[in-house]
Amino acid sequence: QVQVVESGGGLVQPGGSLRLSCTTSGFSLGVYAVGWFRQAPGKEREGVSCVSSAGSTSYKDSMEDRLTISRDNAKNTVYLQMDSLTPEDTAVYSCAIVNAYWSANYCPLSNYDSYTYYGQGTQVTVSS
Fold first, then answer.
1. Which of 60, 116, 113 is nearest to 89 (CA)?
2. For 25-66, how does the pLDDT look when each residue is reduced to its tens digit (9 = 90+)?
3. What is the pLDDT of residue 27?
4. Of 126, 30, 122, 19, whose CA–CA distance to 80 is shortest?
5. CB 63 within 8 A of CB 83
6. 9, 27, 102, 112: least surrounded by Cβ within 10 Å?
7. How far are the Cα atoms of 3, 76, 87, 115, 128 from residue 91, in angstroms, in the given order?
């Protein structure tokens, strides 16, 4: 059974950092691309970052200097390090998985529907 579980969210003060984790089970993550998305109340879902099976990365332009995405295939986990957080980063962050066997560099940052498996999300709240 395929499972995708996010963790690492929580309450953080402005300027703080969080590291989110996306852990999968039921399959080997090695040939899958992984994307991180977020959705704030009253706003549309948006792509934040993605990593291809080969390790190629992509980031939302306005956040690129504050994010680092990485993957540990041995642990079936992808991490999203977020620094210098602001209240505008408050949202539910979720990850999505797609089998990208045809391209090791496939990493669809903006197309949520391109993915196959989805997690439930983890809440990130940035507030003093």
1. 60
2. 998 898 899 999 999 999 999 999 999 999 999 999 999 999
3. 86
4. 19
5. no
6. 102
7. 22, 24, 9, 20, 16
